[in-house]
Design a protein that fits this description.
Layout (H helix, E strand, L loop, with lengths): L1 H5 L22 H23 L9 H7 L2 H19 L10 H11 L2 H14 L4 E7 L5 E7 L10 E7 L6 H4 L3 H11 L3 H8 L6
Antiparallel strand pairs: 1-2, 1-3
The protein binds fe (ii) ion.
């Protein structure tokens, strides 16, 4: 936001697409507040510090992710991943998609329930911190995978459609160590299938 402009960064902290209490009861306002204001904003502040007066300060966020060494990459990727995560959720989301996206899920995973199982397994099976992704590969097939820490699929040739943050800070206040309950709540009640549909169609480049 303002602070981004002060240091010449080409990107700003994206606004949350909904009120902080809008994801209750599956994610509390407190969790969303801490996650967005402390973690997401904190990654951007640290990134700003790390690249101040360096050539990266003039680059787009995705360029920084693709071209930086580990320390800057981690911060830049976490900024991008969190923006994508907020867009992957919505109040009264979940359920199942329809149309081409549902057909593609059925072709790729066997059934929608098989997809849900695979996505939950990717999220719950990621040891330690990381992310679970629904991806569209170069052959038009959907896949799920997890990535550790800040890593993401940008540059892999696979287009992210949805993500679930499985760092403990995403769920600990609401679910303590029960990641599987958080993941179930996100998949069943919060995923924004309209966002995934727009991503699949190439209409949303965020
Ligand atoms: Fe997070």
């Amino acid at each position: 936001m303002q602070a981004g402009k002060e240091t010449g960064l080409k990107f700003e902290l994206p606004s949350l697409p909904y009120a902080k209490d809008a994801l209750e009861p599956h994610l509390s306002a407190r969790t969303v507040h801490v996650h967005y204001e402390k973690h997401h904003r904190g990654y951007l502040a640290k990134l700003r510090q790390a690249i101040e007066d360096k050539p990266e300060a003039d680059r787009e966020l995705e360029e920084i992710i693709r071209s930086s060494d580990r320390g800057v990459f981690n911060l830049a990727a976490q900024v991008w991943n969190h923006g994508f995560y907020w867009n992957s959720l919505r109040p009264h989301g979940g359920g199942r998609p329809d149309g081409e996206l549902l057909s593609k899920i059925q072709r790729s995973f066997g059934s929608f329930d098989d997809f849900k199982r695979a996505f939950a397994e990717a999220a719950n099976g990621q040891f330690g911190s990381g992310w679970a992704w629904l991806l569209l590969d170069a052959h038009g097939r959907l896949r799920v995978r997890s990535t550790p820490d800040a890593e993401n699929p940008l540059g892999s040739g696979q287009r992210p459609l949805l993500t679930i943050d499985v760092w403990e800070h995403a769920y600990y206040l609401d679910y303590q160590n029960e990641r599987a309950k958080y993941v179930e709540g996100v998949i069943d009640h919060l995923l924004d299938w309209d966002f995934a549909q727009r991503r699949m169609a190439g209409l949303d480049a965020s």
